[in-house]
Amino acid sequence: MSNDSTGESPSTTTEPYMVAEPAPAAETNVAASNLMAALKTVHSAGLAVQTLSVSTIILSPTNRVCLNSCGLADVLALHPCSNMDAAQQSDLQAVGHVLSVILSSSADNYVAMQGQASVVLPGPGFSTDFKELFGYLNHRLTPVVAIDDVLRLAGSRVFSELDAARRESDLLCDNLKLELANGRLVRLVCKMNFITERSDNVVDPEWAETGDRYLIKLFRDYVFHSVSDSGKPVSSMAHVVGNLNKLDAGSPEKIMLMSRDEKSCLVVSYEEVKRCVEDAYQELVTPSQAWR
């Protein structure tokens, strides 16, 4: 049984948390923040994990920490937990132990004590807030400490995580806008290619070469088959994207379209070309006996 308390999709959590190699301070800070957020979710529901350890933590490809085997102790127990405060206290102690195991993978996090064995403490790469949180979880817990008391120590870190999440959200929104714009351009290109150079109209085999359809063909040549003054093909993506964006917006700007034999020229606006594309496409998709 498993429960993802961080909201991450179970399908993306494929790697167990590994501590064989030294974990950078930044990743350890993120792991601590995610663990505390997961405990906050569980404890706010009046429950306790009770099985929190390094072996029950899963690290997702997006560096999110997820808790596995949540609720397993409740299922196996004959009776519900009678002392939830103590169980939640054990969860906090388990977080301290997990952080100790993570820190123990690096020699920089060992401090020699006079007359005693070396102890694990956050090294110089960790912030003061993390050091205080680590010490609190491992040495200062009392039976009355709750998750909210511990989270106060990580207040500044929470704001940093929130800011990072918002930055990521803004980046995803910007990328989504780009993809939406690309989708509009693809639809325009598809419509033009559906229309141009068709010969399957039974009534008028020259349908694609007459009227508004001929104008669309000239515009297609202007966008994709232009040549420079020296006769070289114009392969500029900026030229293509710029013209398609103006077509999509229906710009009143006018352009000159020339036939392939250079015997005729037409001066039209992007708005007029867009209307021709939409009208011809609607004629194409409307059921008619003219099409085989």
UniProtKB/TrEMBL annotation:
<keyword id="KW-0547">Nucleotide-binding</keyword>
<dbReference type="GO" id="GO:0000932">
    <property type="term" value="C:P-body"/>
</dbReference>
<dbReference type="GO" id="GO:0005524">
    <property type="term" value="F:ATP binding"/>
</dbReference>
<dbReference type="GO" id="GO:0006397">
    <property type="term" value="P:mRNA processing"/>
</dbReference>
<dbReference type="InterPro" id="IPR041332">
    <property type="entry name" value="Pan3_CK"/>
</dbReference>
<keyword id="KW-0507">mRNA processing</keyword>
<keyword id="KW-0963">Cytoplasm</keyword>
<keyword id="KW-0175">Coiled coil</keyword>
<dbReference type="Pfam" id="PF18101">
    <property type="entry name" value="Pan3_CK"/>
</dbReference>
<dbReference type="GO" id="GO:0008143">
    <property type="term" value="F:poly(A) binding"/>
</dbReference>
<keyword id="KW-0067">ATP-binding</keyword>
<dbReference type="GO" id="GO:0000289">
    <property type="term" value="P:nuclear-transcribed mRNA poly(A) tail shortening"/>
</dbReference>
<feature type="domain" description="Pan3 C-terminal knob">
    <location>
        <begin position="147"/>
        <end position="284"/>
    </location>
</feature>
<dbReference type="InterPro" id="IPR030844">
    <property type="entry name" value="PAN3"/>
</dbReference>
<dbReference type="GO" id="GO:0031251">
    <property type="term" value="C:PAN complex"/>
</dbReference>
<protein>
    <submittedName>
        <fullName>PAB-dependent poly(A)-specific ribonuclease subunit 3</fullName>
    </submittedName>
</protein>
